[in-house]
C-alpha cells in the first residue's frame, strides 16, 4: 500500500508539471525546453537552463506589430501558486534568431501577472495568488518596442513548496514589425537576474502568510 501511495504521488507530481511551448498557436515558433518529456522544473537559479532551457531553436518566428497582442501558449496546467512573467531579448546585429542563445544582460520584462492578496487563507490550491491562467497567456506589447527579431522567455515561478522554488520556463521566437523608438530596460541576464536568498523566490506561503509580495526581477518595461 505504501508503494502504491508513492507511485500515485509521483504521478500527481508529473501531471502537475508543464512548460510554455509556443508563441502563437504554431508550435514551430517555440524553442523546445530540455524538460519537454517530463515537464520538470528548473530548480537552480545559477543553471544555464534559466535562460531558455538550452535545447535547440525554432523553425519559425511569430510576427506581430509593436503594440499588438502576443499569445503565449503552454502545454498544460499550470497547477501551482506563484507569479508568471514574460521577458524579451532583441537579437543583436550579426546574429540570427535561429542561432542566438540570449546570453548576457539582454533581457527586459514585458509582462508580470499573479495577483497576490496578502494574509489570506488557503482557499483550495491557489494560496492567495488569485489570478487564473488563460491559455494562451496574452501579452500586450509596448508600442515603443523597436522592430526586429526577439527571443521571448516565459516563466512561471511555482511556490507551493516552502522555500523550494520551481521555475517552469519556455522560449520562443518573434519578429516585431511597425516598431517604435523605445529603449527597453532595465536589462538583466539569465542566469544572474535572480539572487540566492531573494525573498521573492525563497518564501514560505504556507505559514505565516506574507502580507505583500512582489515577483523577482526588474520592473515591467512599458515603453
UniProtKB/TrEMBL annotation:
Residues 38-47 have a biased composition (Polar residues). It catalyses: [(1->4)-beta-D-glucosyl]n+m + reduced acceptor + O2 = 4-dehydro-beta-D-glucosyl-[(1->4)-beta-D-glucosyl]n-1 + [(1->4)-beta-D-glucosyl]m + acceptor + H2O. It is an enzyme of class 1 (oxidoreductase). Keywords: Carbohydrate metabolism, Cellulose degradation, Copper, Disulfide bond, Glycoprotein, Metal-binding, Monooxygenase, Oxidoreductase, Polysaccharide degradation, Secreted, Signal. GO terms for cellular component: extracellular region. Its EC number is 1.14.99.56. It comes from the Eukaryota. The keyword Chaperone does not apply. It is found in: Secreted. Its main location: secreted. The keyword Disulfide bond applies. It holds the Pfam family AA9. This is lytic cellulose monooxygenase (C4-dehydrogenating). It comes from Cudoniella acicularis.
